[in-house]
Amino acid sequence: MRVLAAMSGGVDSAVAAARAVEAGHDVTGVHLALSAKPGTLRTGARGCCTIEDSRDARRAADILGIPFYVWDFAERFTEEVVETFVGEYAAGRTPNPCVTCNEKIKFEALLEKAIALGFDAVCTGHYARLSVVDGVPELRRSADESKDQSYVLASLTPEQLRHAMFPLGGSRKPDVRAEAAERGLAVAEKPDSHDICFIPDGDTKKFLESRLGERPGDLVDAETGAVLGKHTGVHGFTVGQRKGLGIDAPAPDGRPRYVLSLEPVSGTVKVGSSDELAVSRIDADRAIWPSQRPLDGPTECVVQVRAHGGMAPAVAEADGDEVRMSLREPLTGVAPGQVAVLYRPDADEGDVVLGSAKIAATA
Predict the structure, then answer these.
(1) Domain total of the chain
(2) What is the pTM (predicted TM-score) of this model?
């Protein structure tokens, strides 16, 4: 097959490309330039897709003996990922930009261009497994559960998965680094990127205020309605947040307060105890079924609401593109705008992704 290997400049994508070459595919490497000012996207081990990374990717491609190109996706990345991120926070929701990037950039924009150029598949260094059942792709958790990235890939469509390759799905990170060293790849010990690539200093609040300005409002006790303080914008908060609330007086019982809900129209941030954070029902919309198998009646599953952690057994029901999940065990810190991913447990071959949907409300 003709394979386009997306090479970020890190160890995972380099080894994934190497394995595609070793498997006998006709491989071409490509690095995605996602910023008009790439020097602003990395601070130490933070961020990704910088000039430094493109050079690391090129050196890896040279060692593998494959053609290599840099494609400029900066404008589309800004529109699809950065502006969506800002807009979601302005609306009082908590988005995951990595989900959006995989959906809109790596497996929409990139895949569209790859197919137009005659490639059969896009290969990435994601830790996830793909299998085919009755001619339909199934996305599964990786063998290394600590690195599993099936959550951020769960918004991909069946057609996108048919053209995807994840060579690292059955591997563990230490083994991938060891393999990179054996292959003479200089990125073998390169640190993983962390946080949001377009916020390299990790200060999301400062970044959002630079885009949205100040939108003052009240911090309100959810139980009594008492105004506890002021804030500069709901975009500076997310459900479940404890630190940085700006409340001087402790709660009457001395326990910490947490953000319970955000009301962007009125500018109200409601806070309360950790007990009030627990939710037992999640309503979501914009459902995607990666294996073309929508839920058929009430379905026992595991729901995951964050890329790492936030899992609970549940019964899920679908109605069109809407999904209601009744949790067997309560979850905390569940915010509108997050993605809820539904899994069918499979201890032997990795849990199977049933579908994903955007969280709209909780109870």
Answers:
(1) 3
(2) 0.93
